[in-house]
Write a structure and sequence with these properties.
- The chain is built from 11 helices and 6 strands.
- By secondary structure, it is mostly helical.
- The N terminus and C terminus are likely disordered.
């Protein structure tokens, strides 16, 4: 931990330097009254040299660098972003609920009647089962991800194993624990703060977050593919409405066409954007990392590479084992009951003690 990374320490240091500057200014004023021009020039030169040294000392020393100076300069911006994200989290959650509800309503009003009236019986059964299964999983995991605490280090225990002390909370930090500046609290196995959940993603709700992303992506892909023909038909009708002799359509048909276009554009866009995020998190889970640890491990790997050493993630137990630990799968049956169906089982471990491995013979660990 570098002392220069604390903006509060930098601020107090700058204040001490400013007081030193004021003392020199006071001596300069005294020199003007009682001394000659040579003494005044010497004082001005001393002030100039000290001011330049003061500026350089904020970033040019063994404890900090120019990044620290930028962090101090942008600290008000960070404060504004943190507070805006905190207060707008409720707005983002309402937006997710509103958009998801609008998609479900459009499907029930316009897509599902078309399926029931034109599709064969086996396709109708498939759409009813698949659609409602995805809807159930999306709603369940989103509710659990937003309402479940990510997990915090215990503050009333003194024998908690820790690797450092949080400089914000002034409490011990267990392994894989990081401080969230938006929630102003330390989070066990913190991945990131998600404004769309208005909650941190940590040890206790990481599975809910990833499952929501996964099933929301699958649900958007399902809606986009199912409504593709209706979208092409609605788009052609709306395109011909700008011609000299537009076709006769009732107000209900016009609303239906616009809703279908809105449904297809929204679900297709979300499927692409959220699908990319889901793949990124799946890659991290396969490596036994979180989003925060990804940046830390890459930096540590570069540092060790310069010394001719190889970095090994101690929390990587092999790809298959990482997924089993993440989903809490202990038997084959759990792939169905804990992954493909809604489940509120707790994650593996307590988020404080972690099993570490440094040697791997499993071929799936590569």
């Amino acid at each position: 931990m570098r002392l220069g990374s604390s903006w509060r320490w930098q601020l107090s240091r700058a204040m001490r330097q400013a007081l030193r500057w004021c003392r020199l200014c006071r001596r300069r004023n005294v020199g003007r009254v009682g001394g000659g021009g040579g003494r005044l020039g010497a004082r001005l030169m001393a002030l100039w040299r000290y001011g330049r040294l003061l500026l350089r000392s904020l970033y040019y020393n063994s404890l900090s660098d120019s990044d620290t100076l930028l962090d101090c300069a942008f600290e008000p911006v960070y404060w504004i972003v943190d507070n805006v994200t905190r207060w707008f989290g409720v707005v983002f959650v309402c937006l997710v609920v509103l958009l998801t509800s609008s998609v479900v309503i459009i499907v029930y009003l316009f897509v599902l009647p078309t399926i029931l009236s034109t599709y064969p019986l086996h396709w109708i059964a498939w759409h009813l089962c698949c659609g409602h299964w995805l809807l159930l999983l999306v709603v369940f995991h989103y509710y659990k991800a937003t309402t479940t605490s990510p997990g915090h280090p215990p503050k009333d225990k003194r024998d908690v194993p820790s690797v450092s002390v949080c400089k914000k909370c002034i409490t011990p930090k267990p392994p894989r624990t990081h401080h969230c500046s938006i929630c102003s609290v330390c989070v066990l196995k913190m991945d990131h703060h998600c404004p769309w959940l208005n909650n941190c993603v940590g040890h206790l709700n990481h599975r809910y977050f990833f499952s929501f992303c996964l099933y929301m992506t699958l649900g958007c892909m399902y809606c986009s593919i199912s409504s593709r023909n209706l979208f092409l038909e609605a788009y052609s009708v709306i395109e011909t409405s700008f011609q000299a002799t537009p076709p006769d359509t009732s107000p209900r048909e016009s609303v239906a066409h616009k809703c279908i276009i809105f449904l297809w554009v929204l679900t297709s866009s979300v499927a692409v954007a959220l699908g990319g995020l889901t793949l990124w998190h799946a890659k991290l889970i396969s490596r036994g990392e979180t989003s925060v640890e990804r940046h830390i491990n890459r930096k540590e790997a570069r540092r060790l590479q310069e010394k001719g050493k190889v970095f090994r993630n101690p929390f990587h137990h092999g790809r298959l084992n990482n997924w089993k630990l993440f989903f809490g799968v202990e038997t084959r049956r759990h792939w169905l009951t804990r992954v493909l169906l809604p489940s509120s089982h707790p994650p593996s471990g307590d988020g404080i003690m972690w099993d570490c491995t440094f040697t791997r013979s499993d071929p799936m660990a590569i």
